[in-house]
Amino acid sequence: MPSLLSPTSLDLIGNTRLVRLAGPSARTGCEIYGKCEYENPGGSVKDRAALFMIETAEREGRLKPGGTVVEGTAGNTGIGIATVANAKGYKTIIVMPNNQSPEKMATLRALGAELVLVPPTKFADPEHFVHRSRRIAEETPNAVWTDQFDNIANRAAHIEGTAAEIWHALRNRIDGFTCAAGTGGTIAGVGMGLKARSRDVTIALTDPHGAALYSYFTAGELTSEGSSVAEGIGQGRITGNLEDAPIDCAFRVSDKDALTVIRQLNAEEGLCLGLSSGINVAGAEQLARKLGPGSTVVTILCDSGFRYLSTVWNPAWLREKGLMS
């Protein structure tokens, strides 16, 4: 039996469990597993990247005692950074679009982060949350900008951690992996880690509408159509983390289909999840059907639905967005 003792709170990051998803498995005739990343102390998959980026900055001498960690984020990476920074004695400044869930904002404030809210805008705009966070880091004494989108310490967390955990938990028996991309760190890192163990594992991107990577990996062009209310995923450029990502195929999932999935998982399996997890699981079903009956497919359960009680789990909000069936 593995040890249940953790020397520090940071040792709680990673080694999350895989859960067999009964409904998706039954519908496809495959074994579909979700990696329970909401088990991390900051409540999401982003804790892994936060720890690796901060410890890389420490090793390189860029982050010194009493320093400040600055990041632009849709929320979960900021929460992960604040969690790790608190444990290590650093201050945190988080820049976040003001249309993200109130629960994420409240969580960041509870963690003691200085929260800077900016209007959502295109990446080319100098006031985009990424560019604003970089400038704040440059102007703040003894500060480091973690640069989650292009800092490959992000994907290293998944090469060294997530991929290895999946491989060993399933005793080398995995046929496919899929998830959506925000920074690209998870899909690229897990893909690289699994491909290093077996070239036969199929790595699939699952994109929401409004993102451009589906068209890039299927037609070679960064174009998008439609939109999504999913937070933290959907990308319009090839980030540093996505460069050389071993993606074999791609799927696209609508918000309505993803909402159906998370409602089923909640009602039938007791798993209350966020919309990105619904997109991932819907993509896992598509990948399972592509690979055929008997295949084993893994995806990421990014965070809990309790982080979205005012949005995707709020009927009034869904009606306002035209998503209430």
Automatic annotation (TrEMBL):
<dbReference type="InterPro" id="IPR001216">
    <property type="entry name" value="P-phosphate_BS"/>
</dbReference>
<feature type="domain" description="Tryptophan synthase beta chain-like PALP">
    <location>
        <begin position="11"/>
        <end position="303"/>
    </location>
</feature>
<dbReference type="InterPro" id="IPR050214">
    <property type="entry name" value="Cys_Synth/Cystath_Beta-Synth"/>
</dbReference>
<dbReference type="GO" id="GO:0004124">
    <property type="term" value="F:cysteine synthase activity"/>
</dbReference>
<protein>
    <submittedName>
        <fullName>Cysteine synthase A</fullName>
        <ecNumber>2.5.1.47</ecNumber>
    </submittedName>
</protein>
<keyword id="KW-0808">Transferase</keyword>
<dbReference type="Pfam" id="PF00291">
    <property type="entry name" value="PALP"/>
</dbReference>
<dbReference type="InterPro" id="IPR001926">
    <property type="entry name" value="TrpB-like_PALP"/>
</dbReference>
